């Protein structure tokens, strides 16, 4: 998605060869017009399938899941992150290790809102190590629902997330794929005509 790549080039802060900050338009202040375009793009890519729910994880995936779900005219669910490993009943729950924070969270979704008749599109802001998205894939499996695919806004393609998901048979689409980066320099894997 050219528009997104341009914004990353203009406003992204590359803190190291692994960490990109996009707080001015995606992760802290949100450009709502861009978020809506992102939602439209995910709906265009995946919308030919009969999606019933969009699933993300709090907090930074919420605006993109909401934009996508609004275009598809379906509800979205954000999985909740808890530090405590207290498992309540009636939730699907998986542990997710955050490599950026070096902490393990319990991620959960109420069984009320996801079930075996659902066809689910997962959306998140970043695909890096893949831990968060693999956790959501496992929740969809636990619910017995059908997974349509995973849409990530930014993929750091030099990290292992995409291959982890593809090895599980998941269809992955990322709107900006970063081949490599270092402070002052960023290279994208060219998308096909988008
Ligand atoms: P994972 O490593 O599980 O794929 O990424 C988990 C989460 O960490 C992402 O959803 C995103 O919120 C955050 N994250 C990972 N890498 C980056 C990065 O380079 N920049 C920002 N802003 N967030 C990141």
UniProtKB/TrEMBL annotation:
Keywords: Cytoplasm, Glycosyltransferase, Purine salvage, Transferase. Its EC number is 2.4.2.22. Xanthine binds at residues 20, 27, 156. Pathway: Purine metabolism; XMP biosynthesis via salvage pathway; XMP from xanthine: step 1/1. InterPro entries: PRTase-like, PRTase_dom, Pur/Pyrimidine_PRTase, Xanthine_PRibTrfase. GO terms for cellular component: cytoplasm. Residues 39-159 form the Phosphoribosyltransferase domain. Pfam families: Pribosyltran. Its main location: cytoplasm. NCBIfam families: PRK09219.1 (NF006671), XPRTase (TIGR01744). The keyword Cytoplasm applies. GO terms for biological process: purine ribonucleoside salvage; xanthine metabolic process; XMP salvage. GO terms for molecular function: xanthine phosphoribosyltransferase activity. This is Xanthine phosphoribosyltransferase. Converts the preformed base xanthine, a product of nucleic acid breakdown, to xanthosine 5'-monophosphate (XMP), so it can be reused for RNA or DNA synthesis. It is an enzyme of class 2 (transferase). 5-phospho-alpha-D-ribose 1-diphosphate binds at residues 128-132. PANTHER family: HYPOXANTHINE/GUANINE PHOSPHORIBOSYLTRANSFERASE, XANTHINE PHOSPHORIBOSYLTRANSFERASE. Belongs to the purine/pyrimidine phosphoribosyltransferase family. Xpt subfamily.
